[in-house]
Structure formats: structure tokens, C-alpha cells
Write a structure and sequence with these properties.
Elements lengths: L1 H24 L6 H8 L8 H20 L6
């Protein structure tokens, strides 16, 4: 379970970071899939950068939860 949380958290952090950089600079054109998902969420009306930042934070939290397992798993 720990490895699964670490992997999911790492992917979310990478997607959030790449999406934020893409929105600010235009780099990482391959991250269009995550942007398509975030643009379809009605509560994020044109706040895609905020959505990518939230993805990064959620990914970081998942990694920290998996690291604080305390020897279990």
C-alpha cells in the first residue's frame, strides 16, 4: 500500500508541476490531458493554475502519508 501511495503521489506532483509550468511558460505540451480534465470541472472556471497547484499539494500529502507509515507495510 505504501508503494502505491508513493507512486500516486509522485504522479500527481509531477502532473501538477508540469501543468503549472505549462500554463505559465507554454512548455510541456504533452500535459494537455490533465488540463482537459481540469477545464471540465465546473468549480474551477478558468482557474486551471489553481487546479494544478492543488494537484501538487495532494500529491505531496499522499507521499507524506506513505512515508509516515511508522514501519507498517
Amino acid at each position: 500500500m505504501r508503494k502505491m501511495l508513493e507512486s500516486a503521489g509522485g504522479l500527481l506532483m509531477a502532473a501538477g508541476a508540469a501543468g503549472t509550468i505549462r500554463e505559465l511558460t507554454g512548455w510541456f505540451p504533452f500535459m494537455g490531458g490533465a488540463e482537459q480534465v481540469l477545464e471540465r470541472l465546473p468549480f474551477l472556471d478558468d482557474r486551471v493554475i489553481f487546479g494544478f497547484l492543488v494537484l501538487m499539494v495532494v500529491g505531496f500529502v499522499l507521499v507524506m502519508i506513505s512515508e509516515s507509515g511508522g514501519g507498517r507495510g
